Amino acid sequence: MTRPVPPLALTMGEPAGVGPEIIAAAWKARPSPFVVVGDARLMADHVPVEVVTDPASTASVFDRAVPVLDQPVSTPVTPGRADPAHAPAITGWIETAVRLCLDGAAAGMVTAPIAKAPLYQAGFRFPGHTEFIAELTAEAPWSQTRGPVMMLTARDLRACLITIHSPLSQVPELVTAERVSRVARVTHEALIRDFGIPRPRLALAGLNPHAGEGGSIGLEEQEVLIPTATALRAEGLNISDPRPSDTLFHDEARQTYDAVLCLYHDQALIPVKTLDFWGGVNASLGLPIVRTSPDHGTGFDIAGKGIARPDSLTAALHLARAMADRRVTAA
To answer: What letters, b where the CB count within 10 A reaches 16 and e where it falls short, cover 263-286?
Structure first.
């Protein structure tokens, strides 16, 4: 007998944001089956809902209703108004989804956006989803280089971040040989394992204009990036020397690599959002579980108005399923 394919676990995210709306809109397109981990009452405002106690029920429910593992918030939710009182529910949803993935009950997890400020007010000590999920999976077996590494995807662009939410003034000191090497190894391994690319080609972005112009416009390329790329090639990785970022993202350039390592937030996010503002996806690489998310925030300004677009969430569901299927095939 063929074993049923586990569903994806989709966390509701910030309940006062657009999460419930975009989940409902995504379900109407009937992507790969998912079970929502969240508050069933909030989903029932938008679509038919069926409370389930086991993700295995998802397949029999999904065509007629959104299956929800019901973990209600403790206080009322007003669209557009975050409340720190919801923090225990929000973090609990994430913990539940991680546990389902580690237990094999879910094939992977997709996370709707969270608002960090109210979580911080409630004592949340992680910069965001990615770091929290990394800690929750830290004890799980993992034979490859451990992340997390943040990858943003849009159309044919995969951009991986060496630093994430760091002030620009701090980026040069954070771009170390150790950090660049770890991100490169995680990305290389993930492209093989999760994206089915047997011989990945990595491009490395430069930090300075013209990638330093041989040291005349900054020394980071000469002192850190070129020696690190040389050492990685000696390990067998196909990675370029640092390339000027102003010529790294046009159509023809993107055909020369499978992923690009970007040194700071906007170096990756500007081209990703320019290529596909509505459909970008955030994927966490180098973890024992599959995790993706839409590449946008909570949308408090439009929450409850019925105008939030599900494009990015739908793309995140498709990518999570594709990554999960490749892991099964490779196992």
So the answer is: bbbebbbebbbebbeebbbbbbbb
